[in-house]
Amino acid sequence: MADDLKLINYGGILQFRMPCDWIEEYEEEGGAKFYEPHPDAGILRLNILTYRTPGPVSATEISNLLAGMARGRHEPVAIHADGSMSIAAWESGDEDGEPLAIRTWCIGSWVPPDCVRIALFTYTMLESQRDHEAFTRDVAMIDREVRSCHFAERQGE
Questions:
Q1: pTM of this structure
Q2: Which CATH architecture does the domain made up of 5-151 adopt?
Q3: Burial, 26: exposed, middle or buried (Cβ in 10 Å; 0-12, 13-18, 19+)?
């Protein structure tokens, strides 16, 4: 992992940092993935979900929404200084018979007057890689960076 981080401005909706040497790929239908340029690298995926609401949303409602999205055993919801909230969880998966470890982060924010945005990040690696030093370091870096992400303050930005 590189020590240098670059700013990612995802669709004008979300800003966060990732290592400069990670490859960025953007899907036509939305979503992105980020990974180191070697074949056994973990893959960080990002999707933004937007929900319209009939009016202001309470912190409890956003917290419950995040907890419902975090599959597997999850940590308590964290409230950030900017009012956004985050939750993280580990879950297991399988691809072509290969066990996977998946770390999920859901970052939520209410955007007045009637919008809740959720940034859904998942970092997928082989289960056998989960306790390797490089992956432990990557998960810690991703955790720090995605929990520090910033949503645009208004809709349409």
A1: 0.90
A2: 3-Layer(aba) Sandwich (3.40)
A3: exposed
